[in-house]
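Q: My labmate handed me this sequence with no annotations at all. I'd like to see what the chain might look like in three dimensions before we decide whether it's worth expressing. Could you predict it?
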Amino acid sequence: MFISPIWIILALPGLILGIWAQMRVKGAFNKYSKVGNSRGMTGAQTARAILDHYALYDVKVEETKGFLSDHYDPRSRTLRLSPDVSRTPSIAAVGIAAHESGHALQHAKGYKPLQLRSAIVPAVQFGSFLGPILFMAGFLLQAFSGIGFNLALVGLILFGITALFTVITLPVEFDATRRAKKELVTMNILTKDEMVGVNKTLDAAALTYVAAAIAAIGQVLYYAFLLFGRRD
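A: Here is what I predict for the chain of 232 residues:
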């Protein structure tokens, strides 16, 4: 099967980086999820402590299904933690719970990048599904009949919104990690030595967002090359 050299240049690096980043996250989590923290706090207890420290009593902490499915939902003001994080008194669990609490703090303080990301979620959900379909339909029409350019362009724009979402996500995630590390230290939840494990776990997780952004941008550029490269 022929693989385009342009695809290798634009899209493949992000995919490779994403695989490597996922391996790092799983490796760090598997290592530090087995190391207990000195205060014996679970992820759920950590999240609740940070939220209560900022009087965010209305933000719920719930357990959700899945592996590393932890997230903060600004619509319902709910912080959802996976079982391995919610129930476990490990360094990794505390770090991840603190990171998700960081998103709740962003929401409470009106952090602009989080507001922007939340605002474009509907467009991203629509574009990530319909964009590739419209692009491929238009691209094939253009290739065989020369009349599908505008349809493919709409698909490219929709897919581009998804890539924009991954870029906006970067400062949101980096700031949540910064807040998490700060609170864990200032609230004396973890010691300096224990923070080494948190740093490795959260920094590896941050790399997955970088990889996602690079992959999405590369894919959009590849689609753009396919579309505009066929024009006379």
